Q: What sequence folds into this?
DNA sequence: GATGAATGAGTTTTCATTCAT
DNA sequence: TATGAATGAAAACTCATTCAT
C-alpha cells in the first residue's frame, strides 16, 4: 500500500492518458516514454515492468473509490443527498480528468492479465456495495422506495452512470457531462422516491 | 453489406471467442489460425487483413441489432411487451453465446482504429434509438410514465442491461443471466409504469 | 527424443560455431541469424526460444556420447583396444569439428540455466561411467593394473584428454591434436598396464 | 602490476562469487553493486569499466599462481613432496573458497575478449611449466620415472586435478574435495614413481 | 485454395556507462 | 566519494503480412 513517488505518478497518469487516447494496444513503453519525454529504459527505474504500471493504475482507482466512500461517511446527510453527492463528485472528477473516465469503466483493458481482471472486478463490486449500503439506509428510513430491492436500484443507478460516461467519451466529449449528470440525478430521484 | 461466406463466419466467430477469452491483445493471426485449425496464411484467403476481421465483427453486431429491432416491429405487442421481448431476447442470446456478451459492450476493443470506434458508437446510438422509439410510443399511449423523458428512461434501462451483462462476465458467468434478467425486468416495469 | 529437421540442425551447428568462436555471450539471435543468413524472427519458426537451441546442443552431445559408447560394445576388442579406440575417435571428431571441441568440455556455457547445468553434468558422468566399465573389465582380465581403482584411472585418463583438448583450443589449434593424442595414448598405456 | 585497494578487492571477490553462482552472463554492474551494497555508479570510482574488473580477476589468479610456485622454491623438499604440497595447497584453497574453484578453470568465461583469453592461456601454461620443472628435477634425481616425459606426466596430473575440481563444482560440492584430493595424490604417486 | 517459412518492424526489457546532485 | 536517474544500444521475442510451393 506504499505511496507512489512523483515520477511514478507522472508515469501512471501518462499511461492513463495514453490508454484514453489510443487504447491499451498503444500503451507501449515507447509511446509512454515519448509522452513523458525520457528514454525508454528510464521507465524501468520507477517500475519493474509494464505490468506494474497497470497495477499502479488500479491502485489509483482503488484509492479514488475508497476516498469517495470515506468522504460520504463523515458528512451528515440524508441518503438521497449522499447519492447526489456521490454522483456529482464522480461527474466533476471525470469532467476535470476525462482520461480517467475513459479507463475506469473499461474493464476489458485489464482483461489480459488474470490477476488484474480480478482486481478490477473487486473494485467494481466494492464501489457498488458502497452505494447499496446508502440505499439500504434510505429504505429503512423510508426515504427510498422499498418495493424494489437496494441491489436492483444500485444496478439501475450505477448502470446509467456508467453508460452516460461511456456515451460522453465515445461521442468525443460532445456534451457537458455535469449538465447531463444533473438531469440523470433528477430522473433517479423521481424513480427512487416512488 | 455483402454476406459472409461460411469460412468467413468461422473466422469471425473464432475472433470473437478469442477476444472474449483473452482480450484483443491476444487476437493474433497465429492464435486465430490455431483456433480454427488452419495455417496462418490461409486466413488471408478470406480476409484482406486483420483489420477486415474486426470490421466483420462489427458488421455482425450491426446485423444482430437490425434484426432484433426489425423483429419487434412486425409483432403486434404493447410497448411494455416489446421492451420485455427485447431484453429477454438479449439475455437469451448472451446466455447461449457468452463470447458475444464479452465483446459487444466492450467499446474499448475497437478504440484502436478511429474508423471502427465510430462504427461502434453508431451501433450503440442506433440501438438505443430503437428502444427510445418504443418508449415514446408507450408514453403517448399512456402505458409509460411521462414525467421522465424517453431518453432518460432509455439510459436507465440500457445502462442496467449493460452493467448486468458486464457483471455476469467479470464474475466469470457465476450467476444465471436469464434469471437475473427477469428480476431486472420486473424492476424496470415498476419504474416505468409509475 | 524427436529428431531435428535439417533447418534445426543448421541452427544448432551455427550456434556451436558461434560459441566456439566468440563465447556464449556472443550467441545472440542476431548473430545466429546473421550466420545462417536469415532474418532474426525466422529462427523462431524452428525453435521456440533461445533456450531450446541450447537444449538442442546438449541433445546432440548426448547422442554423440551414446553412439560412441554403443560403437564400442559391438566390437570385439580388448579393454585396452577399446580405450584406444575411444580416445582416437574423440580426437578425430574434434580435429574434424573443432567447434564441438570448444563447447563440449565447457560446462560453464550452460551454467546459466539450472536445468541445463544438470544435463551437462549427467552427460559427463555417464560418459565417464562408460570408460570406467571398460577399465573394470580390463582389470578383471588382468590387462589393467588393479592397485589403482578404475575410478581413479578414469579420472586420470579423462582429465588428460580434456586438458589436452582445452590446450589445443586455447592455443588456437596450434598443434596437431591427433598426433598429441597418440602420444597421450602411449603414456596412458604405460601407466595403466603396470 | 599495481596492488589493489581494499574496495577493489571487495569488488573483484564479489565478481568471482557472482560468476561462480550464476555464470558470467549474470555478472552485471547492477548485480555486482547489489552484492557489495553500493550504488551502481560507485563501482566506477574503483574500476574504469567492467572489463577492468575481469582483468582484475585474472591479475589475482596470476598472483595466486606466482605465490604458489614461489612458496615451493624456498622450501627444501623432494620433488614428490613438492608436488604433494602443490596439490594439497590447491585443494585446500578451493575448499576454503569454492567460488575461485568455479572460475579459475573456466577459461570460457574470458573468451569474450581476445586479450583476456590470451592472458588466461598464459597463466595456465606458466602454471603447468612450474609443475613440469619440478617433475624434470625429480626425473634427474631418479625419484620420478623417466619412460614418460615430464610434459606428459604434467598433462596427466594437471588434467586430473582440474577434472576433480570440475566434478566437485558441478555436483554442487557434494563430496569432500580434500579427501578426494588425497586419494588422487596416492594414485599419482603410484603412477609417477614407477 | 492451403501451407508454413521468411521478413521487417515492433515489443518489453536489460545493460554499461555517464552525470547532476 | 557516493547516489541513483537517465541514456542509447542491444537483447529476446512477437506479429501482420507475403510468397514459393
A:
Amino acid at each position: 500500500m506504499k505511496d507512489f513517488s512523483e515520477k511514478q505518478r507522472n508515469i501512471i497518469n501518462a499511461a492513463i492518458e495514453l490508454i484514453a487516447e489510443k487504447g491499451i494496444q498503444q500503451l507501449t513503453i515507447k509511446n509512454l516514454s515519448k509522452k513523458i519525454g525520457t528514454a525508454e529504459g528510464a521507465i524501468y527505474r520507477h517500475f519493474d515492468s509494464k505490468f506494474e504500471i497497470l497495477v499502479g493504475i488500479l491502485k489509483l482507482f482503488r484509492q479514488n473509490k475508497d476516498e469517495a466512500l470515506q468522504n460520504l461517511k463523515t458528512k451528515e446527510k440524508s441518503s438521497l443527498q449522499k447519492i447526489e453527492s456521490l454522483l456529482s463528485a464522480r461527474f466533476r472528477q471525470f469532467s476535470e480528468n476525462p482520461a480517467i473516465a475513459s479507463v475506469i469503466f473499461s474493464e476489458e483493458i485489464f482483461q489480459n492479465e488474470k490477476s488484474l481482471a480480478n482486481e478490477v472486478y473487486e473494485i467494481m463490486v466494492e464501489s457498488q456495495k458502497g452505494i447499496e449500503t446508502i440505499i439500504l439506509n434510505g429504505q429503512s428510513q423510508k426515504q427510498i422506495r422499498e418495493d424494489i430491492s437496494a441491489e436492483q436500484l444500485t444496478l439501475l443507478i450505477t448502470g446509467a452512470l456508467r453508460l452516460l460516461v461511456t456515451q460522453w467519451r465515445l461521442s468525443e466529449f460532445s456534451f457537458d457531462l455535469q449538465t447531463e449528470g444533473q438531469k440523470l440525478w433528477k430522473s433517479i430521484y423521481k424513480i427512487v422516491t416512488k
About this structure: The helical segments of chain B are 6-22, 29-36, 50-74, 79-96, 98-104, 114-140, 150-170, 177-192. DSSP finds eight helices and no strands in chain B. The mean pLDDT of chain B is 93. Residues 21 and 99 of chain B are 8 Å apart (CA to CA).
